[in-house]
Specification:
The complex is a heterodimer of chains A (228) and B (260). With 228 residues, chain A is mainly α. Chain A has one domain: MetI-like fold (Orthogonal Bundle), CATH 1.10.3720.10. Helix content of chain A is 78%, strand content 0%. Chain A has ten helices and no strands. Chain A is globular and about 65 Å long. The model of chain A has no long low-confidence stretch (mean pLDDT 89). By secondary structure, chain B is an alpha/beta fold. Chain B folds into three domains: 30 residues; 117 residues, 3-Layer(aba) Sandwich (D-Maltodextrin-Binding Protein, domain 2), CATH 3.40.190; 102 residues, 3-Layer(aba) Sandwich (D-Maltodextrin-Binding Protein, domain 2). Chain B is 43% helix and 24% strand. Chain B has ten helices and ten strands. Chain B has a five-stranded mixed beta sheet with strand order 2-1-3-10-4, sandwiched between helices. A five-stranded mixed beta sheet of chain B has the order 7-6-8-5-9. The longest helix of chain B is centred in the first third of the chain and has 29 residues. Chain B is globular, with a radius of gyration of 22 Å. The relative contact order of chain B is 0.19. The model of chain B has no long low-confidence stretch (mean pLDDT 93). Classes of the chains: A mainly alpha (228), B alpha/beta (260). Chains A and B meet through α9 of A and α3 and β7 of B.
């Protein structure tokens, strides 16, 4: 039919990969911060949350400075012949940076809700920190973590400003759905813009609804049988 | 006391809300403000034109709204408050004309340009033809997005006429306007780019390695007109006349644009 589906494939590839990365990074950071009571707690928390409140163009600018031809990371990678700017890995970096705070903040909120006595009980009974984390904290915080994952996925799917700056508009390689919509409207192709708009609304809606259903299912399991 | 505090807070909030609005109104009583949308490749020449015109007409203010001609055309179509529009391609003008959004008699073709291939100053590529884009040292080629950026449309035409458009497609990064291509080349984030001759001349960090023959693309014609919905018809028409006058045309030539 001739309709170029590549923006959908590129968007899914980038969002799934970045959400996976954020899932692990975010949970680890959230758990570390939950247990850390040192004097830099406020500062670290602020830094982790920062990309959430910064305009995406500032985030894009910062990444550009780092991975561009004259940037620290850019020059380092250049030694191995790797150029990351204007490639889809750059889009993944942008998505990870902007969506990380969502995963971090929401997961940390979930961990903070876990009764410290339960955790301490596990420790007293001889569990290693890893077991406390994986067998007690994470399962109890799971609904919050699931919500965080859904939010992060939606955010990385909708990432536009920073992605455009560091990955660019390369049809078939880095042209995500939001970028396709932007250039469609700039070029006067309103029909194309509406089609992609409808597609992304549908995807985001389905993901959010699914996450909500799973969330309530998990909560049902945690609250035990007979409770809803 | 509690009531006084509440009244004071309410008063402060009202002040904060009303103050910016009050300021805005007192400004706009005095001067006519023309919003001129111009293709971004006209950035430097239009800045000088604007300065010269304001010396002749000190009671006018001009806001230069720069962007790709396609984006600017969209703004007019969607109802933005634009007085004068200058595009880098006659097709945007024709599109607006067909929708009755222009004052047709005001439409004038103002100047021409040439399309060039540029690289950063420290590139090893030698001067040649547009076939140079096939060189393996050019991994990424910056080009305006053809639907919204005239320079991108012209570039596509040139590559088509050389029969290399398909082979270089994998190298192309689309920019939202021609000056973005220039910046990419200057910062080395792409190895080469296609811009107008006048953009390359302005830059001290990029060099021209090829000029496209005039017959390899449609004529590059900058066209200007007054927008139908303008609230400053007299002033806009006067500005349009100035743009079409001898003084303006010699300024265009100074910046490297072609006389028509």
């Amino acid at each position: 039919m001739g309709f170029d589906l590549s923006p959908a494939l590129i968007s899914m590839k980038i969002s799934l990969l970045s959400t996976t990365i954020i899932f692990f990074l975010g949970i680890m950071a959230a758990w570390a911060m939950t247990n850390y009571q040192g004097k830099f707690k406020g500062l670290l928390d602020g830094i982790f949350t920062l990309p959430l409140v910064l305009p995406p163009t500032v985030v894009g600018f910062a990444i550009l400075l780092l991975i561009g031809k004259h940037g620290a990371i850019g020059q380092f990678l250049n030694i191995f012949g790797v150029k990351i700017i204007f490639s889809w890995p750059a889009a993944v970096i942008a998505a990870v940076v902007v969506a990380f705070p969502l995963m971090y903040k929401t997961s940390k909120g979930a961990f903070d809700q876990v009764d410290i006595n339960t955790l301490n009980a596990a420790r007293i009974l001889g569990s290693s920190e890893w077991k406390v984390f994986s067998k007690v904290a994470v399962p109890m915080a799971w609904p919050g973590i699931a919500a965080a994952t859904a939010l992060s996925f939606a955010r990385s799917l909708g990432e536009f400003g920073a992605t455009l700056m560091v990955a660019g508009n390369i049809p078939g390689k880095t042209q995500t759905i939001p970028i396709a919509i932007y250039f469609a409207t700039q070029g006067g192709d309103m029909r194309l813009a509406m089609i992609w708009g409808a597609i992304i609304i549908s995807i985001s809606l389905v993901v959010t609804i699914l996450m909500n259903y799973w969330n309530r299912h998990q909560e049902g399991l945690i609250s035990g049988p007979g409770r809803r | 006391m509690k009531i006084i505090r509440k009244i004071l807070i309410l008063f402060a909030v009202l002040l904060i809300i009303v103050f910016p609005i009050a300021c805005e109104n007192s400004d706009s009583e005095e001067k006519v403000v023309l919003t001129v949308s111009a293709a971004i490749s006209l950035k430097d020449v239009m800045t000088e034109i604007k300065e010269n015109y304001l010396m002749l007409k000190p009671d006018i203010k001009i806001n230069l709204n720069l962007g790709s001609s396609g984006s600017l055309q969209q703004q007019v179509e969607q109802g933005a408050d634009i007085d004068v529009f200058i595009s880098a391609d006659t097709s945007q003008m024709t599109a607006l004309e067909n929708k009755d959004l222009l004052i047709e008699e005001s439409e004038k073709d103002l100047m021409g340009n040439k399309l060039v291939l540029i690289t950063s100053n420290d590139s090893f590529l030698k001067e040649g033809t547009f076939y140079s884009v096939l060189d393996p040292s050019i991994e990424k080629l910056g080009v305006g997005e053809p639907l919204s950026v005239p320079a991108g449309k012209y570039a596509a035409e040139v590559f088509s006429s050389l029969d290399i458009l398909e082979s270089i497609k994998s190298k192309i990064v689309y920019a939202k306007d021609v000056r973005e291509v220039l910046t990419w080349v200057e910062t080395g984030n792409v190895e080469a780019g296609v811009v107008y001759k006048t953009d390359a001349i302005i830059s001290s960090k990029a060099k021209i390695i090829a000029t496209a023959p005039d017959d390899s693309h449609s004529p590059i014609i900058y066209s200007g007109a007054v927008i139908q919905s303008t609230k400053n018809t007299t002033e806009s028409l006067d500005f349009m006349n100035f743009l079409n006058g001898e003084e303006a045309k010699s300024i265009y030539e100074k910046y490297g644009f072609n006389r028509l």
